[in-house]
Prior knowledge:
Blueprint: E1 2-7, H1 17-26, E2 39-49, E3 54-57, H2 60-69, E4 76-87, E5 90-105, E6 109-114, H3 118-132, H4 142-150, E7 155-159, H5 164-179, E8 183-186, H6 195-204, E9 208-213, H7 220-231, E10 236-241, E11 256-259, H8 268-278
Amino acid sequence: MEIKRNYRPKDINWKLIPDLMRKVQESIPEDQQKEIRFKLEPSSLYKIETFSQEVSVRSGGEFVNFVKETPEPPLQVRVELECLRVRGGIEPYAIDPPYLRFYWDRNTIRMSLSRTETETAFRLMRDIEETLELSPAEPIRDTEKEEKKRQLRRTAFIAHAFTDVGRSYAFQLTKFLSLLCFEVATGEGYSPERVSDKVKRRLTAQEIVIVVLSKQEDITWLTQEMSGAEFAGKPIMLLIEQGVEFKLGVLGDLEYVQFQKGQIAETFTPILEGFRELGFVFK
């Protein structure tokens, strides 16, 4: 079961969050914590961004203390009850979807609840909403949608495999997008942080996410990046090389573009069509 909801912006009583995380953790069914060869374990993760710093902690107490003591008000808070896959001798790693995601800034509040039985999930969601006094987001009027389209930034994140083929596709896409005056970011390049954190930060900073799936590669990371983009509300353009088997999973019925091996240019016209649908204007 997975529920996703958006809420009206408001201030949050942060000291309530760790207790709500515990409630979600206690609700996880036992059969959700076992696999044939692996064990699934929940793990809390709190990320706080202020004007001058970004802080990540695992303890609810540390999270509350930081929010109380920092002289700078939080600009963005992300809370996750991660789902870690654990096996003896292998370092645990997070898999999507997590049990709980909670995102807050001054303009946006989003929450998703996953891997929980239906009745329990809805009960937990109502409990969290009542405790934090969250109200459903109001639908955007058509005039507001048009205004948003006019303000779209020409920035894109390209998610691709770090192979010769994946890099070649990304290079050709970057050249094409630069002709349309787009700034392009990828997961390439060193940054002194976790790879997943680097990718999430760069991805969420862009307006559009373009994902290229090519043959003979491990698409686990690309799948996680797509899930992150979907949760962040980013438009996703999915380009799949013919012959690649891929299940959309949490992305549902997302439309995608297929291209022949080595012929990424076949996607350029559909990409332009997609940009126009989003509201970009090209002379």
